[in-house]
Amino acid sequence: MFDTIKQTNVTGETPADTRKRILETAGEVFAMSGYRNTTIREICRSAGVNIAAVNYHFGNKEGLYLAVLKYRQEVAFRKYPLDFGTASTDPPEERLRAFIRSFVTRILGEGEVSRFGRLMAREYIEPTNALDTVVEETIRPLFTRLSSIVRQLLGRKPKEETVRLCSASVVGQCLYFLYAAPVIKRLFQQPEFGPKEIEAIADHIAEFSLYAIGSFAVRKGGEKG
Amino acid sequence: MFDTIKQTNVTGETPADTRKRILETAGEVFAMSGYRNTTIREICRSAGVNIAAVNYHFGNKEGLYLAVLKYRQEVAFRKYPLDFGTASTDPPEERLRAFIRSFVTRILGEGEVSRFGRLMAREYIEPTNALDTVVEETIRPLFTRLSSIVRQLLGRKPKEETVRLCSASVVGQCLYFLYAAPVIKRLFQQPEFGPKEIEAIADHIAEFSLYAIGSFAVRKGGEKG
DNA sequence: TATAGTATCAAACATTTGTTTTAATCATTT
DNA sequence: AAATGATTAAAACAAATGTTTGATACTATA
Q1: pLDDT tens digit string along B129-145?
Q2: CA pair distance B135, A53, nearest whole angstrom
């Protein structure tokens, strides 16, 4: 009768475990293969539950996907803070480095740390009905945060279009290493990105971007600070 | 009996027209929706031919896709030269600008000019069995060309990893505006990229990258030229 | 223990989609 | 005109996949 009281079945698992298991597994599979190429059967087989469980607990495939997004957003915001230990009073160079390191890790990292980031990255290239919500709740706030750092780096009164384009350059570089992974693997026989490679990539993108934005600031928009 | 003699049916079209029409239409649809999300029925309906025509002329869906890639590569290499009117003796700054302008146009441009580029961009994010061939025949040559420009810009004896990473930064920025189009549309109410926007994007990426690579050269790798 | 509500399961259903079949049509050659 | 080979067309087939059904098992409560 009470929602908080869990039943236990013969295997010692509560019914909620089935729901949770689907949620976890679906997050992995959706992040890896995208919404459309993921089958309910694959999720259920991998989670060890009956096919009908998805319909019972989430209504349909889209309902499951939305629940996964919600769950993963909640976890990501709680467990993986956006600013990797930097304060807003830190110099913008430091903040940009932290932003890029966080962004790259959330996309390229192994395991749970990248679950939400990869789901977001999937929405970029294969939008679902959730894209509108995703943009407003996640992508826009992130882009606004990045833009404020870039604006600060660009110095006095930069054109808003310059801010947008420079921010896009930063994000574009980060996403590339995820999207191009199959190509990079073939171009350079590089099998996978470990923590070492991810750090090197983040450092490069930060350096590259700071050089570029710094030059924009000097040659176009007056002095920084 | 002779291959060069075409039959004409009641509508005044030669049989080869059916093949050609499928090839053209399939190129559009594949470039727009990707291999997996494209249905033979959609192609045939859009091309105004019978469903069985694909099987008759190309064997199966994969055969059609491979024929499209081959055809589009042939057309692209013939009609849209890689170096937008620049000579290899031009200064590397000019060559990078030309490379980026060409690359961005081949990806973001409207109509036929972007057909092959978008098919390639699709292979990045949704690889097919053709990816190995695509990498060796198209992506690697292009990346090698870009790398040689970047290497020249970086000055004496740059580290090969720096060359690779800087080249990746350039390509990543370009691809972003294609992949992120649905997001950009929502973030800035920007409905589409016209020739004006494409030029602005190309100019920005070139400037951003030249600033960055220039700073790498000055601070890391000795003097240019 | 009996009952009611919840959860699980095997099976079936309906739709989509790549593929094949078989007949008809068309153009060329004899 | 007849025959032949090439092409087109409608229909059916088979597999994949999201969804639903109806029965069964389980747990908490009375």
Answers
A1: 999 999 999 999 999 99
A2: 42
